[in-house]
Amino acid sequence: MRLEQKKALITGASRGIGRAVADLFIAEGASVWGIGTREPEDLAERIQEAKGKLHWTSADIGNLDALEGIIEGLAKEADGFDILVNNAGITRDNLSFRMSLEDFQKVLDVNLTAAFLIARTVGRDMLRRRQGAVINMASVVGIHGNGGQANYAASKAGLIGLTKSLAQETASRGIRVNAIAPGFIASDMTTALNDAAREKMMALIPLKRIGKPEDVARAALFLASDSASYITGQVLSVDGGMFI
Fold it and tell me: What pLDDT, in 10s, does the model give residues 7-32?
């Protein structure tokens, strides 16, 4: 198992990509502390199946005033984390000239500022122990932009900049910081697309399929493992070749 005896903190772990990452990390031997706004409906079953390797905390990632205290408590409970996956994120889409400042700021708070605060809190212990892997979940939108998502694109572009800066600051202490940029991944949003929208989307993807959360989880596993011990400051696109 590639993550045997490792401890991982994963935000936004209740569903989608975060859930897939948590499940795969546990399968590969890690103990996972999941945090998210919503408690999974099948949480009790998941905890039982994980045999003590899944711990859950329900918290509002966007409540920045309380966030550091919550993360400090989890780090103390776990006696430090070996892996951090900043996956929590929200969207509040609209055209820029119609977007409220509140919607713009809220997306930045959850997607970017919270990731900074969590990385800073968890990273202090990683620096002391001179080891650790941080994975920030960005998006192809943060690289290429997307109409109607100025707030989301800005937050994910900022997350990429944060990743590269943290990587430069911490590499000498044995900490690796990388980002993953998913493309179109199966979710409630993509399931709701009509046939015309789905065909338009598929035309952009050379591999001719929408990605699965597990596709992203496997990339996260690689970056979290010793197999990626010489990789830091990178952005790995998991997009089926959309932007070749």
Answer: 999 999 999 999 999 999 999 999 99
Query: Of 89, 82, 110, which Cα lies nearest the Cα of 25?
Result: 82
Whether the pLDDT of residue 55 is over 90: the answer is: yes
| Amino acid sitting at position 149 | Q
Which of 135, 212, 128 has the alpha carbon at shortest distance from 179?
A: 135
Reported as a single tens digit per residue, the pLDDT across 199-218 is 888 889 999 999 999 999 99
Burial of 195 (0-12, 13-18, 19+ CB in 10 A): exposed
Catalytic positions, please?
152
Give φ, ψ of 6 to 5 degrees.
-90, 150
Give pLDDT, residue 182.
96
